[in-house]
Design brief:
The protein has 369 residues and is of the alpha/beta class. It has a single domain (23-367), classed as Aldolase class I (TIM Barrel, Alpha-Beta Barrel). It contains 14 helices and 10 strands. The chain has helices at residues 8-18, 24-32, 36-51, 92-106, 123-136, 147-157, 161-171, 186-192, 198-211, 228-245, 262-265, 275-289, 305-313, 341-349; strands spanning 54-58, 60-63, 110-113, 141-144, 173-176, 215-222, 248-255, 318-321, 354-358, 364-367. The strands form 2 sheets. The protein has a 6-stranded parallel beta sheet with strand order 2-3-4-5-6-7. Helix 6 (147-157) packs across helix 9. The radius of gyration is 20 Å and the shape is globular.
C-alpha cells in the first residue's frame, strides 16, 4: 500500500523508523482519522523488522484463586462481596491440585494467577501459595497478582511495596501481569468505578517492580467511555516508563466486554466495539512502541481465534497463551472455552507464520516448522 507524499502518516512512520517520539496529537490522529488498512500495513512492516515471521506463545493456565473483591469495579462481572453463595477462595492445596490436573496433561510453563482484592488474605497466604507451587512445579513461571492486589497487601501489612514485592519474589513470583491498567485517566477511572488515583498506583507498582529487576506486562482496556486522547496518554505513560527501565515484557490492548456489568446496566456502554477497533489498537500500539516494547500480544481471548490471526497481520507478534479454566471473561456471559497449543500452532501456520513456544520470561524453548 502506497502512501501519498502529503499524508501525515509519512511523518509518523519516519519517527517510528528512526526512534523519534510520536506525539499525543499524532496518536489521536491515528485513532480518529487514519485508514485501518494503512495502519495495519505500517505496523506489520515494523513487526517484520523486529521478529520477522516468528510468533510466540506460551503453554499457560489462568487460575482465579478468589472472586471476593472489595474494589467492585463497574466494568467487572466476576467479583463477589463474600456474602454470595458462589463466593470462593481456594486454599493452597486446592490450587496445587487444580494445577496438577492441567500440568500433567498439557505441560504448563506459565501460571497466571490473580483474583480479587480479598481483604481477608494476608501476605502469608500468597507466599505460602507460591512456595507450594514452586516446590511441586519448579519449571512453571508464576505470573502473579494485579497491581491492586499488591498495593492492598502492602496497606494491609503496613509495609512498603518494595518489601511486599521482595517477599513475593523470594517465595516464587517471577513476573507481574498488566491487569488493572484499564485507562489511566482519573476521569475515566471514576466512571469505571476505580479509585481516581489507581492509574498512578498501577504505574507506581510497576516502576517499583522494574527498579527491583522484576519484569511485568502492560495492558490497556478500550471500548468503554474513553476517547482517543485518553488512549494516547495511556500509551505514552507506558512508553515513558519503558524507556526508563525496559521492564515491560509485552503489551496487550483488549476490548471491554460489557455483559453483566454495571456499566451496561446503567446504559453507559451498550455494546462491545467491533473487530476494526481491535485491529486499530493493535496496529497503533506497534507503531507507538516499536522496538522499545517489542512484544505486542494479540487480543484473541475476547475476540476468538480468527481475530487473533488478524491481529498478527496488524502488528502483533505474540499470541499470548493457551487457556484452561479462565473464569473472569465468562462471568460477562461470553464463553471463551479452552485453547490448546495445537490450535495455536495450526492457526499461526495457517497464516504463514512460524510458531515458537516460549516460557514465562519470553525465552524461546521450541520452534514449530
Amino acid at each position: 500500500m502506497m502512501l501519498n507524499v502529503s499524508d501525515p502518516m509519512i511523518d509518523i512512520l519516519e519517527k517510528a523508523r528512526t526512534g523519534g517520539e510520536i506525539s499525543r496529537d499524532e496518536i489521536a490522529f491515528m485513532y480518529n482519522e487514519v485508514d485501518i488498512k494503512k495502519l495495519g500495513y505500517a505496523a506489520r512492516i515494523l513487526t517484520d523488522k523486529i521478529t520477522g515471521r516468528q510468533v510466540s506463545f506460551v503453554s499457560n493456565m489462568i487460575l482465579n484463586y478468589t472472586n471476593i473483591c472489595n474494589v467492585r469495579c463497574n466494568f467487572c462481572a466476576f467479583y463477589r462481596t463474600g456474602n454470595e453463595e458462589d463466593s470462593y477462595t481456594m486454599t493452597a492445596e486446592q490450587v496445587v491440585e487444580r494445577l496438577r490436573q492441567f500440568h500433567s496433561a498439557y505441560g504448563i510453563r506459565q501460571l497466571l494467577i490473580q483474583g480479587g482484592v480479598n481483604p481477608d488474605l494476608p501476605l502469608e497466604y500468597y507466599t505460602d501459595l507460591f512456595r507450594k507451587i514452586k516446590r511441586e512445579f519448579p519449571e512453571i513461571g508464576i505470573n502473579g497478582l494485579s497491581t491492586s492486589e499488591i498495593s492492598f497487601i502492602a496497606r494491609k501489612e503496613k509495609t512498603s511495596l518494595r518489601d511486599v514485592l521482595e517477599s513475593l519474589r523470594e517465595s516464587g513470583l517471577e513476573t507481574i501481569p498488566g491487569a488493572g491498567a484499564e485507562i489511566f485517566s482519573a476521569d475515566v477511572r471514576k466512571v469505571l468505578g476505580r479509585p481516581v488515583n489507581s492509574g498512578e498506583q498501577w504505574l507506581n507498582v510497576m516502576e517499583t517492580a522494574h527498579s527491583m529487576g522484576i519484569k511485568t506486562s502492560a495492558t490497556m482496556m478500550f471500548g468503554h467511555v474513553e476517547n482517543a486522547y485518553h488512549r494516547a496518554d495511556h500509551l505514552l505513560s507506558i512508553l515513558e516508563l519503558q524507556k526508563k527501565y525496559h521492564g515491560f515484557l509485552s503489551f496487550t490492548p483488549w476490548n471491554f466486554e460489557p455483559g453483566n456489568t454495571k456499566l451496561e446496566r446503567d446504559g453507559l456502554v451498550n455494546r462491545r466495539v467491533g473487530g476494526e477497533e481491535v485491529l486499530r489498537n493493535i496496529a497503533i500500539s506497534r507503531i507507538v512502541f516499536n522496538r522499545e516494547l517489542p512484544i505486542i500480544q494479540s487480543s484473541w481471548l475476547t475476540n476468538g481465534v480468527e481475530m487473533g490471526q488478524m491481529s498478527i497481520y496488524f502488528g502483533a507478534n505474540d499470541w499470548g497463551g493457551t487457556i484452561y479454566d479462565e473464569k473472569v471473561i465468562p462471568a460477562t456471559g461470553k464463553m471463551v472455552g479452552n485453547l490448546r497449543k495445537e490450535t495455536i500452532i495450526r492457526a499461526l501456520k495457517g497464516i504463514g507464520m512460524v510458531p515458537v513456544e516460549r516460557d514465562n520470561a519470553y525465552k524461546i524453548i521450541k520452534t514449530y516448522v
